[in-house]
Amino acid sequence: MNTLTPYIKANYKLNSGETPVYIRLYLMQKRVLLPTNVKVKSNAWSHTKNQVLASDPDYKDKNLQIKSSLARCTEILKRYRLQFKEITPELIREEYKIFSTYIDFYDFMEKAVQTKKGISSIATIKKHNAVLGKLKEFKSQLMFSEINLEFINSFDKYLKLKLGNKTNTRVNNLKIFKSYLEMAVRKEIIKQNPFGLKKLSRQKVDKINLTSTEVNKLIYFYRQEQFSPNLHKVLRLFLFACVTGVRISDIFRIRHEGIYNGVLSFIPQKTLHAKSLNIDMPLTPFALELIRDQAPQRISGFIFDRISNPHINRCLKDIMDYVNIKKTVTFHSGRHTFATLFLEKGGSVEVLQKLLGHSSIINTMVYVHVSKKRIIDQMTLFGNNL
User: Where are the beta strands (DSSP E) in 113-163?
Assistant: First the structure.
């Protein structure tokens, strides 16, 4: 058993007049000194108790740091002993330097996610916890030392083959994973991010939106009440998104109390804790009709009843099949539809930015490219005026 002893070189002093404190041990008949990063005046050091005396104003913190260094050495020696491995002076010096890589990554990430509560949105917290859950499913225990490019690639393969995640979902998951490793680098837990130069490129996906004709077809079927009560309710929610651009996360949070003089005011959940960006959405007559249809007698509380997102998307597939719209429509297509039609009907990008609640107009500009009809119409107008 190695004896670990806090130790100072009494005859060695820094320019500050202090002496560094080391952990001393002997391996292979060689003396090994490991730095504790504690410095002390020689007259404030007890050679009998091997600790900093109370005459040093920071003696409690310094002694605590020395104990931490002793625990680090003990853990390294224990790990090698249990694995029946021989440890050399060179190895323990290297292990001592990178000891923090043996910290439990899951414990680190869980605590880091907790600190985001009240700062990041609820949706963001859920996404990060979902990634943590996937990592735990892939490997029940994970130390920082086990995370390398090979592990990252194996996890990516697991997301693709085992969980069936598509490219953009995998990229989003890996970016979240990477962000916590970057946090660990900033906290000096690890020296560099194992992701290195690994490229995380999203696959370009066309935003699915409906044309004005397709929306009018849905409105016709909605007013004819040709669907089951369940499908009719889902179609009402989707049409509301088509004429307001409200996200599904906000559809179930908006309240009657937020409507005044035909304007719906709410703070998007996505920026609820981050920017508190308020949206004032003037409601069209059809949007007000949809609200009345939901519950004619309801004048307070939540406007729409909650339905799960997967269930909504399954119902939307059935609805589109019934009305013969050959597009892969999800609920978010309603938001894309609103943005595209708003621009096609002459709305400005600046106003659309406010209505969608985008903090940057760059996010809104994507709909300028989506609106192919607007390009064709304006080129036609250009050609007719030559």
Answer: none
**Type of residue numbered 209:** N
Where do the DSSP E strands lie in 28-177?
A: 30-40, 45-46, 51-52
CA distance 118 to 249: 17
**First-to-last CA distance in the chain?**
94
User: Residues 256, 292: contact at Cβ < 8 Å?
Assistant: no
DSSP per position, 163-218: S---HHHHHHHHHHHHHHHHHHHHTTSSSS-TTTT----PPP-PPP---HHHHHHH
256-283: average pLDDT: 80
The two structure tokens encoding residue 83: 């694995």
On the question of pLDDT at 205 being above 50, the answer is yes
What tokens does 142 get? 């994970």
| Residue pLDDT, tens place only, 212-235 | 999 999 999 999 988 999 999 999
- The beta-carbon contacts of 197-202 under 8 Å, at least 24 apart in sequence, are 198/149, 198/152, 200/171, 200/174, 200/175, 201/171, 202/167, 202/168, 202/171, 202/172
